[in-house]
Amino acid sequence: MPSESMPHEKRSEQYSRRKFLAGSGAVAGASIAGCLGGGGGGGSDTVKIGFVLPFSGTYSFLGESIVNGVKLRLDQQLGGEIDGRTVEYIRQDTGADPATGASITQEFLQSENVDFIVGPVSSAVAGAMKPEIASAGSAIWLNANAGNYKLVQDNCTRYHFRTSFNTWQTSAPLASYVKDNIADNVVLSYANYTFGQQSKNLFQEAFEEAGGTVVDEIGAPLGTSDYSSFLQEIENSGADAVFSFFAGSDAVNYIKQFSSFGLNEKMTQTGSGFLLSADTLPAQGKAALGMYSLLHYTPTKQSDRNQAFVEAYSGQYDTTPNVYACQGYDSGLAAEMAVKEAGGTDTDSMASGLAGKELDSPRGYFKFKSSTHDPIMDMDVRQVVEADGGGVQNEVVETLSQVEGPTWGCSL
Amino acid sequence: MVLDGIAKTALLGVEMGMTLVLVTVGLTLIFGMMDVINFAHGSLYMLGAYFGLTVVSVTGNWWAALLIAPLLVGLLGGLIEYFSIRPLYGRNPLYHILLTFGFAIMLHGLVTEIWGGQVQNISTPALLDGSVDLVLFSYPLFRLFLLGVSIAVTAALWLAIRQSDFGIVMRASAHDSEMVNALGTDVKRVFTAVFVLGSVLAGLAGVLLGTSQAVDPGMAASIIIQAFAIVVIGGLGSYRGAVVGAFIVGMLNAFGPTFAPQFTDALLYLLMAAVLLVKPAGLFGNPEAT
């Protein structure tokens, strides 16, 4: 629950604000002296992290999860210090508005001198932030959720490090698994917006390459609450399996209705992992049983590293971590690695220090691909099974090792 | 094969349309009676779902939620009307729009704060789980129940408005509230009663749809837009218009993906534009009404 984390949030916010005020005199002096080099930084002995995330509206829950993940690593596990430098935070709410995201980014870079920018949730917001970060070159951008592959395709920047995933990774690698184990023909259903279209296209490409046939495709408007007539089209396609991209409440509505109309008895549902994630499964319940999905993080994954993370996170926040919390935690790991590698907060040294480096993430080892700074990581194919407590949960049925993905012409 | 497909889609359309009536009726009655455009109506619907969620988790009984949640929403609606909307009667309608819009924003924040932003769902009661074989096709039992409840409520309201004493007072107040007041009926109490009624219906829809659909803080905004479009198509203030409009939109939602898959999003608004061009007051609206 967000309320659980509130007292802690408040405390560290106040702490950082006081700390910042105390340090600002020194910073002002340094600025007048006029020589801060390539690095940003709120002072030589601090590391300043700016959260550019939604804290209101539909995605506020995702924003909070990411912040929780970052703070679990840096505050709880490292005691609020990296290499003897105190970690400070500043946060502002993007809502879901790209223009707001861009202006917050600009403010963080120019007036707040942040060393790291963590965020955003939405790819549209990320698109608006990118030119600011690329031209300033004074902070490392830890992209903790925006998966649009075009962020790397068009004018890729060396300051951008994806601590999350790209659209290709959460869709295309599932194609050969579906072809080999489930069906050689599928129908595609997706939320009709950029992310849904990208996932659908990337899956289709890979599925046809693997020798499968795409029978039909059905796009439903983002935010549809009743999918019944779309489901009829899916049923009429006669395909043996479905690949889908839906997320959040769309995923809940789609999956519940898919099963209530009995389609789960006629075809196998597969999809990008957001379709059947830790956030949506409690609401989807038994309607989700037997369905397959692909994601880079599964809270129920049986590995020591992950179980330690789940324990620490649940202990701190009184709720189990989701994929966004993991992406936040990995952003914390990346910030730690960057400062240690660079021996400070010089932005260019941190960028060189991070590229190609491997992080010990709860999702498994992952590293930033040198040419794109996208993650190379293990992807889990999961199936929904009954949980001991009576609910449902994902069970990893196969792990695709070190999934890399295309470079889209980016060569950093 | 073709026949059962069409039959099933038609049933879907009727079901989706009739369920929407529960939301649109309150909206249109409140406007028809008090000239109040209630932007918070979607939030009352959302609260119905969240109250339902809490009642189910406390009592473990879905039927208790179906009864208690709408009453709680009705109570809240009554308080909102009494303390905030009532002092503004007779003023510029913009005051009501701003006020209820403010409530919508506040309730959104409140719900996120209390219940969290994650997606939830009221689980279907065991009695209504599963599906029924309707010869040509099978259909989820819960959705048939939804259809049955909606039809029953719509018919009962229709009768009440047409036949009961309260219905007569309601219609009279909508027509000329000063005269009704002069004849010894306290119109303000009638207004409060209508607002409570609309709130109860929205709450009821919240519990019902919160069971077949996802419950999250975004549900208020998504229903209010559609509900307003329906009310405008049917004619603001017209009960018949709200029912017919919802029915048409239900059919549009059902058949849209089959015939115009790329335009499902726009169909509703195209229809609204077309209706307004031909009949600016909506299908059943009274062009002379102020």
From TrEMBL, chain B:
GO cellular component, one term: plasma membrane
Keywords: Amino-acid transport, Cell membrane, Membrane, Transmembrane, Transmembrane helix, Transport
Cell compartments where the protein resides: Cell membrane
Cell membrane in keyword set: yes
BP terms from Gene Ontology: amino acid transport
Family assignment from sequence similarity: Belongs to the binding-protein-dependent transport system permease family. LivHM subfamily.
Protein known as: Branched-chain amino acid ABC transporter permease
